[in-house]
Amino acid sequence: MPPVPHDHLELAPAQRFDVLIDFSTYPPGTRITMANGFDTGAMGQVMQFVVADSGPEPFTVPAELSTITELHERDAVTTRKFDFRIGDVNNHDGWLISHMAFDPDTIAAHVRLGTTEIW
After folding, report:
1. Which residues, at least 6 apart from 73, have a Cβ–Cβ distance to it below 8 Å?
2. CA distance 106 to 24
3. From CA 111, how far away is CA 97, in angstroms rounded?
4. pLDDT tens digit string along 18-48?
5. For 68-83, what is each residue's pLDDT tens digit?
6. CB 71 within 8 A of CB 116
7. Of 3, 7, 45, 79, which residue has the fewest beta carbons closer than 10 angstroms?
8. Contact 75, 112 (CB under 8 A)
């Protein structure tokens, strides 16, 4: 998959991204905070970067960041229906999964390793 520039990312529950950040335009000592726009509390500040002096070698972003294994619908062992949307969670916008507030401590589906499911 080729690199794609973004100034923000929207992530649904269980969604993941690999991120490469170019700090070359920032002076050493600059602090940059990655923020979660849905949470102003402890979860609001995801992580902070402190720009260091440049390294000994320049970095070139590869033309291909990763390969994605093609999945086939015919190999699915289970079909599940989930409704993902943003809605009211304790008087704040948050993720709802099938009309229930997202809870990181609740497992909504147990998927056997190495299997394919349709969601």
Report:
1. 118
2. 40
3. 17
4. 888 888 889 999 999 888 777 666 667 778 9
5. 889 999 999 999 999 9
6. yes
7. 7
8. no
With beta carbons less than 8 A apart as the criterion, state whether 86 and 94 touch.
Answer: yes
Q: How far is C-alpha 14 from the geometric centre of its chain's CA atoms?
A: 8
Task: Give the Cβ contact number of residue 23 at 10 Å.
Answer: 14
d(CA 111, CA 98): 18
Q: Which residue has the tokens 């056997």?
A: 112
Rounded Cα–Cα distance for residues 96 and 115 (Å) = 25
Task: Name residue 111's amino acid.
Answer: V
- DSSP for the chain, written as a single string: ------S-----TT---------TTSPTT-EEEEE-TT--STTTEEEEEE--S--SS-----S-----PPP-GGGEEEE----EEEEEETTEEEEEETTEE--TT-------TT-EEE-
